Amino acid sequence: MAKKVLHLISSPQLETSVTKKLGNVIIEKIQEKYPDSIVKERNLAEESFPHLDGFQIGSWFTPAENRSAEQAAAIKLSDDAVAEMHEADIYVIGAPFYNFAIPSTLKAYLDHITRPGLTFRFNEQGQPEGAFKNKKAYIATASSGVYTQGPTQSWDYVSPYLTFMLGFLGITDISFVRAEGLRLPGIKETAFERGVESIVID
Ligand SMILES: Cc1cc2nc3c(=O)[nH]c(=O)nc-3n(C[C@H](O)[C@H](O)[C@H](O)COP(=O)(O)O)c2cc1C
Predict the structure, then answer these.
(1) What is the pLDDT of residue 121?
(2) What is the Å distance from ligand 1's center to 182 Cα?
(3) Probe ligand 1: pick from 99, 183, 188, max atoms within 8 Å of CB?
(4) CB pairs under 8 A, 24+ apart, for 113-116?
(5) 77: Cβ contacts below 8 Å, ≥ 6 apart
(6) Residue 72 belongs to what H/E stretch?
């Protein structure tokens, strides 16, 4: 069965980006398993989402039918990104380690798709419920260091944050694909291949 795949790229590197290459390998494997899948790419580094401003936040909280033309225009980018998230079955998200966390381009994007009452709400039990249910996310990550084991394991603010944040939005089926240790002798030589070998498409 063909799938709709949304590839989110957050590295500003062009041809040399490891997360972009890893994301593309994941997509190739998705297409092998699900022929005729459609891929849409959104490059968050080339067309970045701005930091949220007060006018945009105020527009979110104004009921759609009461929004002025300026308010509607101010959140069109956010509305379109939310619609695109709904359309996709599978997300492939490139998330390099940038100072132990995700790049601000990806954080800005997440800020625009995390909309109270629209993409999440708290139910009567006070539990969060996200809007993007029954979706699959593959996170293509890359780092100079190693964070899956050893003394620097607790320095990883990429996988705990994305696991929590995507879960908050309803996306609980998440696979991390890592090219890690890209600067460490003895590890860097095979880091990308080990990432590729760990890919399992389900
Ligand atoms: C601004 C910047 C910050 C980085 N911070 C980290 C870091 O905190 N930990 C780490 O292991 N690698 C860090 N790196 C290395 C990158 O994660 C690595 O080069 C990775 O391949 C970047 O992904 P990309 O190739 O898709 O751009 C950093 C690189 C840059 C440019």
Answers:
(1) 98
(2) 9
(3) 99
(4) 113/78, 113/81, 113/82, 113/85, 113/169, 114/165, 114/168, 114/169, 115/60, 115/78, 115/82, 116/60, 116/61
(5) 49, 112
(6) helix 69-74
What pLDDT does residue 23 have?
98
DSSP letter at 48?
A: P
Probe residue for ligand 1, chosen from 11, 15, 107, 143 as the CB with the greatest number of ligand atoms within 8 Å: 143
Closest C-alpha to 10, from 58, 53, 42: 42
- For the chain, which ranges sit under pLDDT 50? none
Instruction: Report whether 139 contacts 159 (CB < 8 A).
Output: yes
Residue ranges of domains in the chain, CATH in brackets:
4-197 (3.40.50.360)
pTM as predicted: 0.97
